[in-house]
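[audit] Reproducing an earlier prediction to check determinism. Same input, same settings, fresh worker. If the tokens differ from the archived copy the diff job will pick it up downstream; this log only records the rerun itself.
[audit] input (222 residues):
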Amino acid sequence: MTASGSTPPPTGPTAHAAGAAHPHRVPWWALVSAVVAPVSMIGAWTLSAALQPSFDPVRDTISDLATAGMVAPWVMGAGLAVTGVAHCVTAAGLRDVPTAGRAFLVLGGLATFAVAMFPSDTHSQLHGISAAVGFGALGLWPALAARRGESGVLSPKVAIPASVVLLGLVGVFVAELQQVTPDDGALTGLTERLVAGAQSLWPLVVVAALRRRRRAGRPLAA
């Protein structure tokens, strides 16, 4: 008790534990951006492919849809750009996620935006670099967002396997793209859609889980 009769605020480990018991609420706008990312990505490649008189989504890549030879290349370009911005907005709202994880989510978002700005038919090298950075960063960020002693979506036993799966899908896509698979790249488009779709959905999984935990009043790990 202080001289005025009030209880002083906790300090040291007690204060840290008290702060951990009241995690920041993931704002509504982060939930919106987390929903927008997969809707933009998947919706864009679905609509863009539908506009093409002949397009094989199993073999042909998402990047092909944003090239000048397509009926409406701006559809896929806009979808990629919006997805990239959405990832950055989501990262800004995940204040209880470790900084490294948030930073890689931002990096993945910026790289995805760059993929839209540098179409493969006009800026092949920059497009390839941007895509590699984006796939890599979005595959790594779940593991980097893990916190020791945490439970749920940020626990190492959930976050690290998530990264392993996402990076594994990237590896399969690269193998298909380089035509070193038994099918000689016949599934290039399908594997790219699997990895791009999964990577666009994981931020939504994290946001939804953290908002649910906050409503239930369960603390994050100290």
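[audit] rerun output stored. Observation attached for the diff report: The chain has one domain: 28-213.
[audit] end
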